[in-house]
Amino acid sequence: MNKGRLEAFSDGVVAILITIMVLELRVPRGADLEALRPLLPVFLTYVLSFVNLGIYWNNHHHMLHAADRINGKILWANLHLLFWLSLVPFVTGWMGENHFASLPTAVYGAVMLLAAVAYTILQKMIVAEQGPNSRLAAAVGTDAKAKLSLACYVLAIPLAFVNQWVSDGLYVFVALMWLVPDRRIESRLNQRAGV
Amino acid sequence: MNKGRLEAFSDGVVAILITIMVLELRVPRGADLEALRPLLPVFLTYVLSFVNLGIYWNNHHHMLHAADRINGKILWANLHLLFWLSLVPFVTGWMGENHFASLPTAVYGAVMLLAAVAYTILQKMIVAEQGPNSRLAAAVGTDAKAKLSLACYVLAIPLAFVNQWVSDGLYVFVALMWLVPDRRIESRLNQRAGV
Amino acid sequence: MNKGRLEAFSDGVVAILITIMVLELRVPRGADLEALRPLLPVFLTYVLSFVNLGIYWNNHHHMLHAADRINGKILWANLHLLFWLSLVPFVTGWMGENHFASLPTAVYGAVMLLAAVAYTILQKMIVAEQGPNSRLAAAVGTDAKAKLSLACYVLAIPLAFVNQWVSDGLYVFVALMWLVPDRRIESRLNQRAGV
Amino acid sequence: MNKGRLEAFSDGVVAILITIMVLELRVPRGADLEALRPLLPVFLTYVLSFVNLGIYWNNHHHMLHAADRINGKILWANLHLLFWLSLVPFVTGWMGENHFASLPTAVYGAVMLLAAVAYTILQKMIVAEQGPNSRLAAAVGTDAKAKLSLACYVLAIPLAFVNQWVSDGLYVFVALMWLVPDRRIESRLNQRAGV
Predict the structure, then answer these.
(1) Minimal Cα–Cα distance from C16 to chain B, Å?
(2) What's the farthest any 2 CA atoms get from each other in chain D?
(3) ipTM at complex level
């Protein structure tokens, strides 16, 4: 079984999700700054979700590049990941249009958590298929960054009902952690994880 | 004639359909649980149709992977399948927004039946093109699962006007039958089919 | 310059156009047959445009398969074709929602005519790039079918203001001419064209 | 790391953006010329943005064709470009529906400027990865056309508040400069840049 079509299909879905989100940025009636102002929270959530989907695409790219073999279970684990990612435009729009209210902020975290869990499952299946001595198993390692991301999302969901800005801050922190390629943070995290 | 572009085009259409469906999940006005509640039936039909489209993509992937040659007729048989699949977002939205009323439930079954018939036609044409001794002809076999799916859809359409929950149950049953890789069910089905 | 990305980009655009059209089939409020009835003309125009876009994809597939070289001008001629095809969802929706009124019927024909002209230009540029003795130049031949299609569209535009059903009949005739692989019609057309 | 998936993902995003824009051309209620008239400015901005996205796709195609190696930073620089391009449908719709008012015209220029800056960054990173003696470094040269485009956008933004037609004229000029392959203009520009 070849991985080309799996990559192409995933690329297609993520490309569509990343562009469909922009439809939530509805063209305003007026032509002045007042007309743009209500779009600001929608725009900010759009940037956050664009970066998050970009991170998934990037990591998916690297993971499958290092994989040599796939199987039927991996196809379904990939569709499972795409399912949760497909809900990102909905929760992005809901959080943005309600100006980061508590419940939409918590639901955003829940969808991001479930996507992260789905990614972890997919990664485990792909690593298992390659065998324990594959270069992918070595590259994944203890994966401290992924564990920290999961912990942030688990924390952010209940915290949204105490103070949603803490949750939103955690979402931005997770995105920046993956976006900024800070070698020192990565190596420090790996040291704490005992690598 | 090479099959690469046929696969790429089909992947593109299915990727778009699977993500366009989520647009039917309209961002609600309120930010509380009350605002989410009317979306529940729409969400459930979305899950069902996501799984159904995922099954088609998966089976399409396997079938074309085993095919070595295609022809002009196969291109049109494939477009015929994509036509019925393109109506899935419409019937999904109609059934979900009308809380599984009788007529939308029956029409959902009709579109799924016509897609299944189109898939069967496509498969026959591809098998014929490969020749009787090809590995695809052997892999397809008596195809008891496909016949049972067709029978379920034929039953579900009139039953929707008696009790639509029976029809909806049949749709879920067909999806689970393809999703869960239960070897025992498959082999038992094959035994009854006289294999 | 390789043709792979040109094919992939064109496939992407046509796949999106063919599925975006279905969004014009708005999910109706009611759950009875009355609710579906106003959608009938929209559905019929959807079928017509689906077939037309399918024909373009099919012919594009065959033409580029026979081509060995492309250049910068061909990229732009291809984008020119995609521009007119991108207007198909708009004119399809306009004709369908206005129950085949005169002006929308004429504008539909105008967009189809301009797409056909753009295809002819693209074909000429591709044939020129391959050289006069290429297999593509031989395959294209006198192209009686393409000339008849152009003539039908030229006729249909003014006729829409006399009787739009004649124009709609011409659109269906052109689509069927490409869809039905009737060898006798084709050979007779070629004979009249002096082949 | 291979460039195939980067090309495919970029193609997907641009193909979707170019077709999503056409959704802003809302199907009008009436069936006469009066119903079409308010769509004229939306249609004109659609043509302008279609050409602009086509230019980006064309240049992206040529640049990556000449590149042999990519890295992780290039993936993110490419996503950065796609982010600004993803805002093109929004600013196109805003400018078109407000009949080229000052602020939307300025914002259109700002998004085009940021996309052009993102393209320049991406190009620098790709050239750096190939090494100073690569064929890409030679092909890019002094890039007078890109510098003139950036200057036009920088000028057009403040000028939109004086006379927006000057800004719109500058946008059309930049598009034509890339679209029309006028060798004389190019060579004259290169002479002034001291090549």
Answers:
(1) 7
(2) 61
(3) 0.86
